[in-house]
């Protein structure tokens, strides 16, 4: 089964590099030998997932079907989508659903507002847990032990001048998020971006998070708390009541 | 490299079945032996792409990253997204980009309108070529030989009472689509759905198609032609001019 693991690693490295790649480049990006990468790309090409143009390989749309497999088989995503869309229509802001996966928040569903300045996120996007509202809600839902392990192994990078990079301070913030049942993150991920998130509960505690992301120069932090948070909480209750995630 | 092929087949069958599956069900869906499916699911679970709950396996969000690999590495998708969004903001209707892949149209980018009744399509969705506006534009862009081969091997299913199921008639329609440079499909895929599509040109002819999909009870076919088609053509020219696809 090693060739499956290697093939998936090669597929994924196209997402990280965001461009067509030569065998040598994919070998550098994955840490696999050139011979190994060449065999993988040959198989992926034969199966229709990749195509060769000169020395470069690129992925074909068929690769989309692999990601779609998760989206179309997930009960959580199916139930969340109409709820996110309703919320988006009510608030005229983009709403997302995220889950924790390998120390990141994965966007798994999204309803986008029709603003010209929109935020480039979609199902499959990944962001750091520590600097995002959904990430903090998800971290706050972990056991004490798991939260501490995360804080120990994660480098807290100052993505903006506002990013909390002190472990102790982040730990205190997470405790408050757990108590209050929401996280508000103000330009810690990117200047101009402000968002609020709440947990979605499943059988085993926090199963996911939903958020509303807005532009800081359009929506004040108070608005997020007073106007958006109650609507977000309602949506989360509706989704949590649908179980079973 | 056979285990890579088998593993990808197992991943994809989750998309087709749209639910958690047992080893026996996945074996039935893929035609692979149970032992083989069990080994694949074991590896996928170890790698974090799947999770076992009782006798059932389901995919994890990490599988999304595989589809995202195509989206984030595709020049066409990157260039099309802002153009689709602009078109959506102008017309207040959902706009999509599709490509031909294994006798289907694959949605690879989409800008959704914020209507309450929305059409459940997203990147990764696949639809039959013969009954969709993008599909007909893509078929019309094929060589005479490829078009004939497609018509020979494809069963034209009457998806609604309006679906063209006669090979000769479809062939005539495709010739007109090629001449006029657009396809208008009126409730042949689903009752209530009307759409118009135009080609996007790459170095080797028709590289993709963009369309606008609307509800038939809201937008008349004449509107699609008179109001939407010129905007769609403009967007297609902009995108085609960006090459190189």
From TrEMBL, chains A, B:
Keywords recorded for this protein, A-Z: DNA-binding, Transcription, Transcription regulation
Residue ranges of every copy of the HTH iclR-type domain listed in the record: 1-61
Any GO molecular function: DNA-binding transcription factor activity
Signal peptide boundaries: none
Domain IclR-ED positions: 62-245
GO terms under biological process: 3,4-dihydroxybenzoate metabolic process; negative regulation of DNA-templated transcription; positive regulation of DNA-templated transcription
Pfam families: HTH_IclR (PF09339), IclR_C (PF01614)
InterPro entries xref list: GAF-like_dom_sf, HTH_MetabolicPath_Reg, PcaR_PcaU, Tscrpt_reg_IclR_C, Tscrpt_reg_IclR_N, WH-like_DNA-bd_sf, WH_DNA-bd_sf
PANTHER family noted in UniProt: HELIX-TURN-HELIX TRANSCRIPTIONAL REGULATOR, ICLR FAMILY, TRANSCRIPTIONAL REGULATOR
Protein's recorded name: Pca regulon regulatory protein
Organism encoding this protein: Sphingopyxis fribergensis
């Amino acid at each position: 089964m090693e060739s499956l693991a290697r093939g998936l690693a090669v597929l994924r490295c196209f997402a990280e590099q965001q461009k067509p790649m030569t065998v040598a480049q994919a070998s550098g990006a994955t840490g696999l030998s050139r011979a190994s990468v060449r065999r993988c790309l040959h198989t992926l090409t034969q199966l229709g997932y990749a195509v060769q143009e000169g020395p470069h390989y690129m992925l074909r749309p068929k690769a989309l079907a692999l990601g779609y497999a998760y989206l179309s088989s997930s009960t959580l995503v199916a139930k969340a989508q109409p709820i996110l869309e309703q919320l988006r229509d009510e608030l005229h802001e983009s709403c997302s659903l995220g889950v924790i996966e390998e120390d990141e928040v994965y966007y798994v569903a999204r309803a986008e507002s029709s603003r010209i300045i929109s935020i480039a996120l979609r199902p499959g996007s990944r962001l750091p847990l520590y600097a995002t509202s959904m990430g903090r809600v998800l971290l706050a839902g972990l056991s004490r032990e798991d939260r501490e392990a995360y804080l120990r192994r994660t480098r807290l990078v100052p993505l903006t001048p506002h990013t909390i990079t002190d472990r102790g301070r982040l730990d205190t913030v997470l405790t408050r998020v757990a108590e209050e049942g929401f996280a508000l993150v103000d330009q810690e991920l990117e200047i101009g971006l402000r968002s609020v998130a709440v947990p979605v509960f499943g059988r085993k505690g926090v199963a996911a998070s939903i958020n509303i992301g807005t532009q800081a120069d359009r929506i004040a932090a108070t608005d997020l708390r007073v106007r958006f948070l109650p609507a977000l909480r309602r949506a989360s209750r509706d989704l949590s009541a649908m179980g079973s995630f």
